[in-house]
Sequence to fold (693 residues):
Amino acid sequence: MKKSIASLLLGTALAVATAGAAFAQDKTVKIGALSDQSGLYADLGGPGSTLAAQMAVEDSGLAGKGWKIDIISGDHQNKPDIGTAIARQWFDVDKVDIIVDVPNSGVALAVNNVVKEKNGVYINSGAATSDLTNAQCSPNTVHWTYDTYMLAHTTGQALVKAGGDTWFFLTADYAFGAALERDTTAVVTANGGKVVGGVKHPLNTPDFSSFLLQAQASKAKIIGLANAGGDTTNTIKQAAEFGIGKGGQKLAALLLFLTDVKAIGLETAQGLNFTETFYWDMNDQTRAFSKRFAGKMKNNAPPTMVQAGVYAGVRHYLKALEALGGNPHDGVKVVEKMKSMPTEDELFGKGEIQPNGRTIHSAYLFEVKTPAESKGPWDFYKLVGSVPGDQAFTPLSESKCALLKK
Amino acid sequence: MQALYAQLLVGLINGSFYALLSLGLAVIFGMLNIINFAHGALYMMGAFVAYFLLNLGGINYWWALLLAPIIVGIFGMILERTMLQWLTGLDHLYGLLLTFGIALIVQGVFQNYFGSSGLPYAIPDQLKGGMNLGFMFLPVYRGWVVIFSLVVCLATWFLIEKTRLGAYLRAATENPTLVRAFGINVPRMITLTYGLGVGLAALAGVLSAPINQVRPLMGADLIIVVFAVVVIGGMGSIMGSIITGFALGVIEGLTKYFYPEASNTVVFVLMVLVLLVKPTGLTGRAA
Fold:
C-alpha cells in the first residue's frame, strides 16, 4: 500500500514536472491588432499599427530562436460592441494571447474588461482615456504612448501659464472627449484659470461652424479641442475660415497626430502647439526606424506616435516572454513580468511600467513649422520643450487604481 | 438672438450641400427610377478630381467647378451605359444594391491609395477672408456656396419643369415607348440625365473641398442624411428636395445650438415623423 502511494506521488510529481517542461517550451504567440481600419482614426492607428506589430516581431529575432508568432488584425469600426465581439472571438476561438492598439477610448474601455475576464494581455497605444490606468485599471493592461492626463498637464498647463486663463471646450461626445475635458479642466482651474463654457459634438462631425460660432461668442481666450483625428482637422480648418485666430482667440489642439497635420496642411496648421511622445525626426534611431516603416506603408507615411507605441509595446512584451522562457498564456503573469523589467527601445528611450499599468516616458512639446521651414513631405514639427515622464503622467499618489492598494 | 441669426445662416450653408445632393438624387430617381446609392462616392470623386486638377495639372478652382462635374459626369454615364441600363424594369432593390456596391468599391479604392484622413484643398484667393455682418463673421466662401448652389438648384428645376427638353424627359419616364415613337432617342436621354445627376453630385464635391477635407469617406458620411432629406421631401420631387435640403440644414443648425448631442439624429427623427404622417413625403405624390 505504502509503495503504491509512493509511486502515485512520484507519478504525480513526474507529470507535474513534464507539464512544467512542456509549458516552458511553449513558444507560440498570437497577437491581435484591433483598430479602426477604415474610419476617422484609421490613419493614426489602423493598418500602420498592424505593420508596427509585425516589425516588432521581426526585430525581436524570436523567430530565429524557435518561436512561432502570428499576427491577426480586426476592424472595430469605432463601435464598442463590435470591438468586444472581436476580442471575445479572438480569445475564445482564435486563441489570441494579446490585443494591441485599440484607439477610441469608448472601445478601449470595453475591450479592457474582456481582456481582464479572459486573462489575456492588453497593450493599448491608441486610446487616450487616463481611466485605463486609473479608476478602471486592470492587472492585464499596459497603457503605452499617451493619455488624457498627460495631454492636459503638458499642452493645457503650458497654455494656461502663458496667459490663457479662460477656456471654452469643443468636446467629442464619448468617453475620450469627456476624459480629456475633465483632466484639462482640472489643470485649468488648478492654475487659476476658468472654464466659461463648452459644447459636446457627435463623433465624426463634418461641419463645425455652428460649434465654432458658439465658441467665438463665449469670448474665451482659449478654445480647447477635446476631440481627435478627422474631427480635430475639420475644426482647425474651419476655425481658420471663421477668422477665430485673428479675433484674438487661440485654439488648443490638445491631441494632434502627424497625419492630422498632413491633412490640415502647414498653411493652416502652422504655429499650433501640442504634445506628443514620439516624432519620427527626433534622432538617428527614430529616423532609421521611420524610414523602414514608411518604405512598407502604401502612402509612404512615417509612423504616428500611436503606431510607434504599438511597436515599442510589442517589443517589450516579447522581451518579457523571452525572459519567462516561454509563453505561459497567462495574462496577469506576463504583465507582471513586463512591469518588473525597465522599458527601453529606439523609439521612446528608457522608461518603466508603473504598477497601475501606465508606461512612463518623456513627452515633447512641439510647434507646427511654417511652410517655409518645412523641408520635406513629412517635415512638420519643431521641438519646443520636453517634460520628463514622472511629471507628465498621473503620479501614483493621485491614482485611484485598485492595484495600488495591495 | 444674434447667435440665433448666425446659426440660421450656418444652417443654410449646410443646407446648400443637402439641397444639391438631394436634387441630383431626385432627378435620377424621378427619371430613371434608380435609388442611386453611389451618389456619395460620386460627390467624393468630384472633390478628388478638383484636388488632382489643382495639384497635378495646376488647374484652379474655377475651372474645377466646370471640369470636375463633366469628368465625373462622364464616369457616371459610363456606369449607366455598362451597368445601370440593364436594370430598367426590375425592382428598385437591384439598382440600390448595384449602386451601393459601386460606392463601396470606389470608396475602397480611394481609401487604399489616400488613407482616411484626407488631403488639404485651399480656398481660392478671390473668396478668402470674411465679412462682419454684425451678428456674425461670415467667411466669403460660405456665402458663395449658398448663393451658387441656390442658383444651380433653381436652374435645374427650371430645366426639368419648364423647358421643352424637360418635358421630353418627364414624358419619357411616363411612357418611353410613346416618346420613342416621336423619334426621340430615349436611352440616350436617360444616360444624359444620369450624367446630369452625377454632375450635380460632383459639383457639390468641388464646392465642399475647401470647407471639408478631401476624404474618401466624405460622401459616405453625408449620403445617409441626404437620403433622409429625399425621403422627407418626397422621392423624385425636384422642388421638394431643394426646399427640404435647405430647411433641414437650418433645423440641424438650430439643433446644434439648442441640443448639440442630438444634431446628427434630428434629421432621422424628422424622417420618421414625416413617414408616419405622410408616407409619400412632404411634396410627394402618391405613386
Remarks:
- Chain B has a mean pLDDT of 89.
- Residues 2-277 of chain B form a domain with the ABC transporter involved in vitamin B12 uptake, BtuC fold (CATH 1.10.3470).
